Amino acid sequence: MEAFTQITLNHYLALSGILFMIGMIGVMMRRNIIVIYMSLELMLNAANLALVSFSRFSAVPKLDGHIMVFLIITVAAAEVAVGLALIVALYRLKQTTNTGDLTSLKF
Amino acid sequence: MKQFLLMPEFQLLVWALVLFVFDAYRPQTKPRTLAWLGILGAALVLGATFVEPLTMGVGQYFHGLYSVDGLSIFFKQFFLVTLIVVLWMSAEFVEVLPLARNEFLLLPMLTTVGMLLLASAVDFTTMFVALELVTISFYVLVAYQRNRSASLEAGVKYLIIGALSTGFLVYGIAFLYGNAGSTSFATILETLSTNPLNLSILFAMALILVGLCFKISAVPFHIWAPDVYQGAPTPVTAFLAVGSKAAGFVVLLRLVFFSCFGNPVVAPYVSSLLAVLAGVTVILGTFAALPQRNLKRLLGYSSIGHAGFILMALSCLSPRGVNAVLIYLISYLLAGLLAFFLITVVSKQVEGEELVNFSGLSKRSPLAAFGLTVAFVSMAGIPPLLGFAGKLGVLAAAWEAQRYVLVGIGVIAAAVGLYYYLSIVRYMYWNEAADGTAAVKLSCSAKWLVWLLVAGVIVFGIYQMPIATVVDQVLLGRNW
To answer: How close, in Å, is residue A26 to chain B by CA atoms?
Structure first.
């Protein structure tokens, strides 16, 4: 019974893999820019989970992974600030957040 | 503390912030004045990079996060030259913007800070932060004309694909960290050579390399290039084409040749992955450019093709290949910036960036038509211009690495490229002007820059000693 209650590195990695896949499928399938953006954040968080669990379960305790996660969170916040501003500007101009309506650049 | 002050990044950052404050207190400052102050700062920092090996010293700093070596110094100079030309270009362009003109001149300086840091990054933490500094400031720059739907649309497309590639990159870094137990390039190189290779290392490497393909606009993250090149303000397009692409290549060079992925255990896998990506990129970039009628969009596809050529040289993982990468980048710096500079100046006066708008340009402005011709002929790879040396170096490196399929693809792509580059020249010299025959005027400083870049393309094409010497210096810095 002990084996089933113990959460190992592989459990975390599996969860992180699932999150990454959900994020990637979301980016490819959804048409709303805000939902796409949420999916992108999910992908970054999947990577964060993987980093923290690798760091936690490493044979020699090191905090490199944790530090990397803080940097990723900060960068993701900056990215969201710029990205949402862009989406708002787009909505003001075209009254849409649907990728299907972005058609002015084509050959 | 002393090292901090000596870092070119720090010097440029301080200069940019001083200009921001200066602009805040004197909002009536003319954009042109601000641009010249920016160019002055960039030139001073450029001068400082030449003495960097003496003042700061070659080696690693900040606990192995930051490195000063031949590669980093070469690319720092490359980025600073790009910045100078981009600011020069922005000064010509900025009158088109309805609002927030001065910030448009200062943001490229902050982007360049990221690029400079990227050239020195020898740890995945530094690399990631610097890369994102570049990418996020480009999101703002691309969508800068927020009253134009094309610019905003380009911004959103760049944002989504950029963030997607960041996700791949970060996930790759996480798994590489999991296997190697460190984010430092040097430690990872060590661990990879001692431990047996497993699937998750290869998976991580593939994710990182594919994520970096976004910056260099190579397959599979090439799809943004044509749209963004067309929609972004022209100086930003130039900065993307030259600066951002080189930023991707400096990371790739450091990863696959100068450190962690360069060890003999993983090198064959890296080399084949890059070779496949290079082949597909060259074919796609070249053939998709053929039916284009918008000049900036055409250059977007052609820049995908150029990225493919450079990747082709990189995939050989040989000193000759790296040599070819650097020479190709220099030739693209001169020719690309020359082309985009003239497109900026001319399209402001002919009201459009379609090929038709450029017809009969030789009569309206002989200098602009001549400059564009030199740029396109160099990009097409016709001797004696510098672009020929770049293409020849790439093909020679691929031949030496016995990648005959790539050589074949390269030769065919070069021939097809000739067709569409020369068709632009035909528009300018043989077609009648479509919309008016009024002369297109170039300002005095614009003429200076055009002559400088034209001279660079021609002189370095014939007399290659200076470039060869600079490039050899980079290769000496390989640290294993």
So the answer is: 11
Q: Residue B139: left (phi > 0), alpha (psi -120 to 50), or beta?
A: alpha
Q: What is the C-alpha end-to-end distance of chain B, expressed in Å? A: 29
Asked if A77 contacts A67 with a C-beta cutoff of 8 angstroms, the reply is: no
Q: Shortest CA distance to B173 belongs to which of A25, A65, A23, A79?
A: A65
Tokens representing B49 are: 């990079």
Give yes or no for a contact between B433 and B440, defined as CB atoms under 8 angstroms apart: no
Tokens of B290: 């053929």
Q: Extract the tokens encoding A91.
A: 């909505």
Interface pTM (ipTM) of the complex? 0.94
Question: For residue B111, which residues of chain A lie inside 8 Å, CB to CB?
Answer: none
| CB nearest A51 (choices: B136, B159, B177) | B177
Q: For testing the chain B interface, which of A37, A92, A104, A106 should be mutated: the one with the most B CBs within 10 Å?
A: A104
Mean pLDDT over B141-160 rounds to 92
C-beta atoms of B177 and A24 within 8 A: no
Domain ranges in chain A are 2-101
Q: Share the mean pLDDT of chain B.
A: 91
Angstrom distance (rounded) from CA B153 to CA B119 = 30
**Domain A2-101 falls under CATH 1.10.287.3510:** yes
Distance CA B418, CA B412 (A): 10
Calpha distance B341→B90 (Å, rounded)? 9
pLDDT digits (tens, 9 = 90+) for B417-469: 999 899 999 999 988 876 677 888 889 999 999 999 999 999 999 998 888 88
Q: Do B182 and A89 touch (CB under 8 A)?
A: no
- Where residue A104 falls among pLDDT bands split at 50, 70, 90? confident
What single-letter DSSP state applies at residue B294? B
Compute CA B350 distance to the chain's CA centroid, rounded to the nearest angstrom: 27
Find, among B228, B226, B175, the residue nearest to B203 by Cα: B175
Token pair, residue B428, equals 């300018």
